[in-house]
């Protein structure tokens, strides 16, 4: 199948979405960071019941660590509220476009059409999309010619 056609026809849920990792908005920042570390994840969805209210990512955690953060504060104080989401029926091309336009590395994958009443069913991230591409287009990915920037003008060890 053609590369462009595949991205325009395959659903976002094909991109190896992670299971939804969720935390309550009242949980502490320390708990959120511990959860990220324990699950070896780079994002956690902040949910009130089944409803997504925000997302807390490793970028948020790094920003907090760079400053003087109170890790006992609620995760809701540092999350990105009302994150951009992608519904389970969106195409990979649509998910990639949303990620590119917004500079996002994670998109919550929502059941149904992503509107009111939808619940998070996973998380589409850059890593999952790359895995999809490698899995479905190995010859294209593995056989890319090297760019000229990868070679040195000087001899090594000279």
Give the rounded overall mean pLDDT. Answer: 86
Structural class: alpha/beta
Shape: flat
Strand ordering within the main sheet: 1-2-3-4
Q: Which CATH first-tier class would you pick?
A: Alpha Beta
What is the H/E order?
A: HEHEEHEEHEEHH
Main sheet characteristics: 4 strands, mixed
Number of strands: 7
Helix share of residues?
A: 25-40%
Strand residues, percent: 15-25%
Radius of gyration: 19 Å
What do we call the CATH homologous superfamily?
CBS-domain
Q: Uncertain segments of ≥5 residues (pLDDT<50)?
A: none
Domain CBS: 15-71, 79-141
InterPro entries: CBS_dom, CBS_dom_sf, Diverse_CBS-Domain
Region (Disordered): 1-22
Organism: Pseudobythopirellula maris
Architecture overview:
The chain is of the alpha/beta class and 158 residues long. It has one domain: Roll (CBS-domain). Helices cover 34% and strands 19% of the residues. It is built from 6 helices and 7 strands. It has a 4-stranded mixed beta sheet with strand order 1-2-3-4. A 3-stranded mixed beta sheet has the order 5-6-7. Strand 2 (43-48) and strand 3 form a beta hairpin.
């Amino acid at each position: 199948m053609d590369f462009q056609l595949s991205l325009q026809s395959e659903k976002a849920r094909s991109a190896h979405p992670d299971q939804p990792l969720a935390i309550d908005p009242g949980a502490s920042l320390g708990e959120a960071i511990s959860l990220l570390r324990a699950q070896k994840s780079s994002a956690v969805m902040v949910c009130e019941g089944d409803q997504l209210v925000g997302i807390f990512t490793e970028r948020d955690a790094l920003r907090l660590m760079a400053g003087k953060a109170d890790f006992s504060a609620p995760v809701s104080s540092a999350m990105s509220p009302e994150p951009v989401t992608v519904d389970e029926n969106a195409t990979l091309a649509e998910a990639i476009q949303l990620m590119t336009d917004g500079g996002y590395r994670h998109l919550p994958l929502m059941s149904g059409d992503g509107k009111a009443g939808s619940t998070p069913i996973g998380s589409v991230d850059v890593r999952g999309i790359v895995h999809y591409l490698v899995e479905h287009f190995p010859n294209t990915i593995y056989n890319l010619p090297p760019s000229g920037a990868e070679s040195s003008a000087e001899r090594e060890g000279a």
